[in-house]
Fold these 3 entries.
Entry 1:
Amino acid sequence: MSKEQRAMIDAILRQPRPEGPRPVEELRAGFRAMMAKMIVPAGIRTTSTTLGPRPALLVEPVDGPRAGTILYFHGGGYVFGSPETALSLTGNLVARTGLRALSLDYRLAPEHPFPAAIADALSAYRALLDSGEDPSALVFAGDSAGGGLTVTTCLAARDADLPMPGAIVAFSPGLDATRTGRSMDTKAGIDPFFTRETLEHTGAMYLAGQDPDHPMLSPAVLADLTGFPPMLLQAGTNEVLLDDSTRLAARARAAGVDVVLDITADVPQVFQSFAGVLDEADEALDRAALFVTQHIRTPDTVSASAA
């Protein structure tokens, strides 16, 4: 672990930004510019495609994928972000697992508030199932708001009597629109990027007046996780949303769900994006890739386990 690397990342994220709420187009442009600086691994190729009614980005190894699929949901507070801004994350998961990833370009608020993103994610999952994809060979993964979508899409799938995917991997998931986690206050100022005010600004765009006391908006405190697949939740101790992960993990355990809560010290939200720059990011992605490969079920893995 490198204190110098962590200090450098913290300084980058603390660079001055305009004060007060910013227009949505400014938020989107700033996020695109920041994520364009992240390192995308070699050995992958990308292809534009569709998944259900929405565009998606197919990310796969240049020498061809092994059996199985990662359905990826990008971060950005349901307001900004795209499959392209998440490419350092999807690319690293693909490079480390050998699987293909389909990164969904779901609709964003304020133009398309709650529950548009969940509806798009569920449609994408249906499309994969309808194409013959075995749900046990499919993993939901995502970061920040997209990490929240890994959970709420499972809730929606269960409500629709669809099978669960093989596993969930969530990087710093946003799981509580009520913002009642203690870390919202205890990590204030320690988090180099987010504040309660910035989260409430984008959160209001997504909520569009809806009550946040809803399992699909605040699963960390309200969702019944019975029947969920194994889950890996990764977060950093410097993020105001830390308690979103810790409380969801507690709910998962209480519901009898296999859950791994993986907390890294002195790193910010979605620190995995800094792979190639921050040792902890590469190590966390290695652990995430191992979790995926351990929990995915394909004809090859079934045959190997039976031998």
Entry 2:
Amino acid sequence: MNKPLAAVALALLLTGAAAAPAMASTSASDTAAGTPTAAAPAVAVTYAGTVALSNCSGSVVRTPNSQPGDPALVLSNGHCLETGFPAAGQVLVNRASSRTFSLLNAAGSKVATLRANKIAYGTMTDTDVSLYQLTTTYAQIQSQYGIAALTLNDARPAQGSSIKVVSGYWKRTYSCNVDGFAYRLKEGAWTWKDSVRYTSSCNTIGGTSGSPVIDTTTGKVVAVNNTGNEDGQRCTDNNPCEVDANGNVTVRRGINYAQQTYTLVPCIGPGSQIDLSRPGCTVPKP
């Protein structure tokens, strides 16, 4: 996991080195049948709409059906929650929160402080995700700061697609491709399903946890950055392993991963309300 950054940030500042994270970490090295050739980006991917948390990255997101007057949502990782890492099997829904987020413009400059009124959804079971509901609407953010929310894609990303991982915490962007998918990704007490595996150039570090993974063709968010194997260990904290459908384990040292986000879209109803009973909503429930 890219470790939430307290000591990591200090170490990076003092040494200039890329310290390894606890849940969104190191570098992705590639594999499969050759590296896909990326097409020229069809959209410009900037920092606009990304946010910096106290220890992680995130982004202001909307669904394809969100309305301007709906309360805005911020996407990050479950392991970035201020309440600490959720236990395996634990799901948080509609928990009060007053957490703040630094909203960035296209150049990566802070333009506002946004505030949550609740953790709308958070878990580290099957996926590693958090959604905060803000006290401001999409329309207010657009009119006051000229920044539109990023849209969550409602379809699964394709292998080989060109992506960018945009970190609001570090104001740094990583460019690579979707190398493939891990049937199960196991790290310590947690197991995630159908995780995105990056090609090697997305060598993310601590603090990039929660960064939106943006498809460069559509400009939509297809995943949320969350972990990487730092030391080549097998299925331990900070060293996730891949487990296939037959139980075979593969360790890819230096490879980084993200959790798909299209599964969140059916669970977000009118007014940005999380409704886990909505048709098509398959994310873990309390």
Entry 3:
Amino acid sequence: MEIRVQQEPFGAGTELDAFTARASGAGAVVSFSGIVRDDSGRMAEMLIEHYPGMTERALEAIAQEAVARWNLADALVIHRFGAMKPGDQIMMVATAARHRKNAFEAAEFLMDYLKSRAPFWKQERSADGASWVAAKQDDEDALKRW
């Protein structure tokens, strides 16, 4: 299991190749990459803040839960912080399991957690000013299935 909170960009293809190569015994690998999205059409950048140490511990705990709950061979969570432009990769989740159902469900669980509960704070910046991104009810509702 690998958890990384980093400022630097990453290559999803490179990360997935390395993850797949070390996922011995797995019959399925599922990955998801999140990209900075500009819904307003005016965002210049998104700033993501976090508390070092606390964030990694929280992500490690939820990843350990996913590994145990879905009997994963491996899990990867990468989440960036700092200033990012629309179109930049913001995060990646990968899961490996003997069977695809477990890999898919674990990946969805991790993505839902990252969207709603992970200790990151997002601020959208544009020529009009800056505003913090509020939690969305749809994201909160997605957690109820787990």
